[in-house]
Structure formats: C-alpha cells, structure tokens
UniProtKB/TrEMBL annotation:
PANTHER family: TRANSPOSABLE ELEMENT TC1 TRANSPOSASE (PTHR23022:SF134), TRANSPOSABLE ELEMENT-RELATED (PTHR23022). Residues 49-183 form the Tc1-like transposase DDE domain. InterPro entries: RNaseH_sf, Tc1-like_DDE_dom, Transposase_5. Transmembrane segments: none annotated. It comes from Cirrhinus mrigala. This is Tc1-like transposase DDE domain-containing protein. Gene3D superfamilies: Ribonuclease H-like superfamily/Ribonuclease H.
Length: 220
C-alpha cells in the first residue's frame, strides 16, 4: 500500500481473503476509496486548459458568464448564472446544429433575459460538435452574443457540472418508472435550485482555476 496506494484490495491480497486484507488495511490506518474519473487530456489540451485558467484567474464575479449543458440520460438542456437557473428544455432527438440553434432561440434567449436583464453577458458552452460548427458560430454573431473561449475536455472548469451533481444527488432516492417520471422529477428538483446555490458555485471558480494552474493544466 505504501509503495502503490492506487492498488486495489484484489491486487494486494495473496494468502489471505479479501475481507481479511481489507480489515488489516483498516487496522493500519488505510481507507478505501474510488478515484475520481477525470477526462483524458493530451499535451496540447493540457496547455489550453492551463492557458484558459491563467487567462481567467483575475476575472470578477460580474465577468463570469451564463453556463449551459446537456444531461445525457434524458437529453435535457439547462442554463445558469450567478442569478439562478433558467428554464429547462427536454430534447427528443440527437442534437445537431439545427436542433441546438432552436434551443438557443427558444430557451437560451429567454433564460438570458430572465437572468441577465439588460446587462451584457458572455455565454459559455463546451466544444460539442453542434456547439462549435460554423452555423452555430454564425448564429451567435447574428444575435450579438459573445461566447467564452473554451478548452476541450474541461468539465472541471464548468460550474454547471457541479449544479447537475446537486440535482442528481437530490434525485438519488427517487423511485422512477419511466422517462416521463424522470423528466417531472428533474423539473421539480431544478426548480428548487436557489440563486444562492448558483452564486456560490460561481464564486468557487477562482479557487478552481487556482487548482488547475497549480496542477499545470492537468485535469483536477
């Protein structure tokens, strides 16, 4: 264990049972846990991850923009800012550029009006194909909406990932029989998210960015 703390119990025990090995490890003060799954980053992506964090490390709360994401279990789009959450959109088909632009038109724009009012904002999205194609970039330009540059494979820099985590934890004991019940539960849980929770996640960003810089761009 001291030589390689990432070995699991199955790899360590030889002559004793797994249960006995586990107990002895606990007696010695070790505990077992499952390492967090981190997205793979090649050297180029890691440098962009680091560069993004360094570039944004001095951003104020007012400069941190609106976030959006897709929860893939039932394909749902949602947006947040430090002012709270916007309306949800459940999707029935694969998200291509046309579908995504329709979501932006009928859900993102109302969410921006609700959360930002007349204030300027920067929209954040990941690098999914539907998000980054030329047609979608043109849509943003035509609507005068600046989009935050984004490094690939960087969910650790996206506050809305933590928000979806909150939603999932609140739903973990729900007994759901079908997709419609799942959607209804997601809507109800999303409606309970407070502006204070969103504000705390946005306020956590400087600390998150500092960790990325400390890790020299490695996933955190």
């Amino acid at each position: 264990m001291k030589q390689n703390p990432f070995k699991n119990v199955e790899e360590i025990h030889k002559d004793a049972s797994r249960a006995t090995t586990h107990r002895r490890m606990q007696d010695m003060g070790f505990s077992c846990c499952i390492p967090c799954v981190k997205p793979p980053l090649n050297n180029r992506q890691r440098q962009k991850h680091l560069a993004w964090a360094k570039d944004k490390k001095d951003w104020t709360a007012a400069e941190r923009g609106t976030e959006s994401t897709l929860l893939e279990s039932v394909m749902v789009w949602g947006a947040m800012s430090s002012a709270g959450v916007g309306p949800l959109c459940f999707l029935r088909s694969k998200v291509n550029a046309a579908v995504y632009q329709d979501v932006l038109e009928h859900f993102m724009l109302p969410a921006a009006d609700q959360l930002c009012g007349d204030a300027d904002f920067i929209f954040q999205q990941d690098l999914a194909p539907a998000h980054s194609v030329k047609a979608t970039s043109t849509w943003f330009k035509d609507h005068g909406i600046p989009v935050l540059n984004w490094p690939a494979n960087s969910p650790d820099l996206n506050p809305i990932e933590n928000l979806w985590g909150i939603v999932k934890r609140k739903m973990r004991y729900a007994r759901l029989n079908n997709a419609e019940e799942l959607k209804a539960t997601i809507r109800a849980t999303w409606a309970l998210i407070t502006p204070e929770q969103c504000h705390r996640l946005i306020d956590f960003m400087p600390r998150c960015i500092a960790v990325v810089i400390q890790a020299k761009g490695a996933p955190t």
